[in-house]
Amino acid sequence: MRDDFDEVRENSPKPDQAAELPAELPELKLKRGIPFRTKALQTLGVIGPAFRRFFKKDSMPNLVLVMALITSITAAGLGAVYAVTKDTIELNKGSALNDALSEVLPVPGLTFTETSPGIYQGRDADGGLAGFALEIAADGFAGKGSIEMIVGVDIRLQITGLAVLSQRETTGFANDNEREWFISQFIGKTGPFAVGEGVDAIAGATVSSEAVAQGVNDALGMLEQEASE
Amino acid sequence: MTNTMRQLKNGLLDQNPTLVLLLGMCPTLATSTSMTNAAGMGLAATAVLICSNFAVSALRKLIPEKIRIAAFVVIIAGFVTAVDYLLQAFAHDLSESLGMFIPLIVVNCIILARAEAFASKNGVLRSALDGLSMGMGFTMALLVVSAIREVLSAGSLFGFRVLPEAFPPIGIMAQPAGGFIVLGVVIAVMQAVRNRGKARPAV
Amino acid sequence: MVQYAVLALGGMGIVLGFLLAAAAKLFYVKVDHRIGEIEEALPGANCGGCGYAGCSAFAAALAGGDAEPNGCPAGGSAVAERLSSILGVETVKNTRLTALVRCSGGARARNRFQYEGIGDCHAAMRIAGGYKECPYGCIGLGSCVKSCPFSAISVVDGVAVVDHERCTGCQTCVSSCPKNIIVPVPYYADVNVACSSRDRGASLRRICDIGCLGCRICEKTCIHNAIHIEDNLAAIDFEKCTGCGDCAEKCPRKLIVDAKLDRGSRLMEV
Fold this sequence. Notes:
Chain A is of the alpha+beta class. Helices cover 47% and strands 21% of the residues of chain A. Chain C folds into three domains: 34-87, Electron transport complex subunit B, putative Fe-S cluster (3-methyladenine DNA Glycosylase II, Chain A, domain 3, Orthogonal Bundle), CATH 1.10.15; 97-186, Alpha-Beta Plaits, CATH 3.30.70; 189-263, Alpha-Beta Plaits (2-Layer Sandwich), CATH 3.30.70. Chains in contact: A-B, A-C, B-C.
């Protein structure tokens, strides 16, 4: 009886007939050696204990490694935080600057233009010069340039106002009320100013007070230099 | 009382860092002139405490004994700097009025002491909880002292006038001397409350 | 930007790591690890009963071989055992001592004058030697009470009394008494003479209701030859005393203290 396999039987090579092999055998590429994953694990298995032996707890390499890791990771983290907050801080400083400029030259309707680095001229609607505002960084208690302030000077070289943009001084200086009366000693007068002669320092913030006085003197000096050029 | 509650109570009362352990006196005296400053300092220190306790506890098995303190200080300094940037960005006025006392949080004894005494020997969650309770205790002490000082020296609380204008402000309360006096009195009251009911040695 | 921060701080970290490692090697101090264990086992009262300046000093001496494991009287036999096991030696029990105030006067002893001054025995002594008629008696203002690190002394009826259960034998009170009438006695001594007066009976009667007259009744009663009158004062030789309590029974002044009557024989506990 004929079944499905008859065709196969008829077409397949008979036992005494060699199968027709192609003339050229394709080269079979055998994968030599050990698979990568195993090799990786093997290496780790060797390096691991060696690593542990070299970086044994309390050994010098281990100390150096841990210190380096902790400092680097902390630095990286801080870099990230800084990057995130940088713009907002600049924004704060910027708006603080604008507020300060208007505060020290309390004449309404002024526009400020920066004519030289740190020196702003305030002109009113008619273009008349109302006064100047100068950016000064005084050397306070916390270090060089630690008190950033804006000094307002009118055309008669009298101080019209002083605004502190940022400082890291002692709490005596940070107190707004204290600063108010301290600054009031400068208003309406012209330089040079010195703590002890006509200007009283804030209690507990002598260095900061002297720095501000010096800063105002520097501002006036800057203006005079500007004018003479 | 559950363990968690007990640990919270620990930082607030039994081992209040400022009033019982007498740690972190410098920022206490300096920032307790007004309640807003006190609250700001307390919250900043609490944030740093929780984070640094968490980090120190997580790394406690990896940090070798010999560089323990150096490692702790680096971690704490990192967190304080981060908090400093955040305050400068989002709470500029507070940052100004606290001034250089924010960087000084790095060397606030409370934080290093808790890292050394607790976080380096306990699990992560426990340490974070300890940081929270110690921070709250510190904040509470700050608020109490600053309330007294602000009322007496400026007649206000959180900047809002609470005493009549006629009340003469007691200037010394805003000075360090007044701060010491108020702090001393608060500590004495705290001790009396803690020791009530304890038997005194017979005389 | 971040790279600079990482490099700078990481570099500092590496340098500091080297520095710390070098310092650790340079300033290495070999610490006997047993000292920590010993310090943990000690009571930590810093009473000085061991003869050293506090528990840490004793621990250091013990680890260095200069002290005995049973050298802490405040710790008692429990601590002695623990210390012996830390050092790996056999336990030698120490003789437990307690303090005795050699005076029973107080309210029963007359005052020369009314004293209103600083409530301290040393201060009272400055005023003509104290306000008590008896020159040997307890002043009762409590200098010893303040000095006891274990709160084991109290003033009862004007005279200091030691709670022998709380007393650890550290002997801090001994040096705090300006009259030097507190003495160390063995804990297991049941019978004690609580008087220090060398005054003759006739004059003593007038100034104190309970002091020792030197009548010798106890000396004659004692069959162990353990109690003698020296200088008008009865003294017990604890080597011979068996704690029978006969002298206490016969004492006409009811001066001799028999502790057995209070809480059972202590000869059972050593």
